[in-house]
Structure formats: structure tokens, C-alpha cells
Design goal:
InterPro entries: RNase_H-like (IPR053151). Helix content is 30%, strand content 24%. The protein contains four helices and six strands.
Length: 164
Amino acid sequence: MASKSQDNIMWTNDLMILRRFGFRDRPTTVPVIKSVIWSHPALGWIKVNTYGTVLSSLGVGGCGGVFCNYRAFVNGYFTIPIGCSPRSEQVPWRVRQVWQRCIFQISQMDFHVSHIFKEGNHVTDVLSKHALELEADSWMFSTSSFCSLLIGIDYIGQKSFRFS
């Protein structure tokens, strides 16, 4: 039977060999798992969920959003392709006018801003990716085939999980 000091020497030798192969001597941290659930807006409110996607290698971006009432019924969807540049200093001027009009309109409303992770925002994630394929803005009043299942998942309050 090996002594404690011999075990430590063997462990140290094993560790040195592993380091030569590029292994770290400490295990990575355990990811934090968060439960994410989309929630209905309050009675009488309209909830607007938005999300954006950028493929910087192609110089394109897109955003999408969905409007839901307090019963989680969809009032409409939008997708907007956004031309962008891999250069961070270039401003997407196409969006500037829309943004300024939006700021003006919401200044006249009673609204609340909150955050939900992408994992709880499935519909807008899909819409923003769909916008990458479009050449013009689109507004839809009825559920698109690629969104109907995701709307159902949100409606029943199915959990999603975020690992960080």
C-alpha cells in the first residue's frame, strides 16, 4: 500500500502530464440553470415581446416582435430586416426614423419595461431569424405556420431552461 506522500507525488505527476496535453488543473464551474416562463400581461394590457438577430459575418440583421393581449391571444406579429455592417461604428440609419417615431409614441403611453431571456421568448427568436430572409418589413395578423407551435408553448406556460 502506497503512503500518502507517494499518492501526492503520483497525483502531481499525473497533473503535469495532463497540463502538457492542454488540460486545465481545475474543473470548470457548474452552470447555473434558470427556469424561464413567458407570462401573460395584466388584465387590459398588451404585451410586446421583441428580439433581434445579427449575422455579422454576412452583414445582415433582423428583428421580430409579437403583440399579445392579457389572455395570451396574438394581436399581430412583425418582422423587420435590418441591413448592418460588420463595422461597429456604422449606424443602421434605416431603423433610426422608426425608432424615433416609436420613442415619441411610447412617451404618450402608460407602459412597463421588463426583461425575459431568449429561452422564454421563442416566437420572437424565430421571427428575428425569419427577418434575415426578407427584403421588406412584414406585419402579420394571423399565426404563421412556423410560429403556431411556439405560441401554444407560451400560452400553456411551458418552462424553458437557460444555462449560464
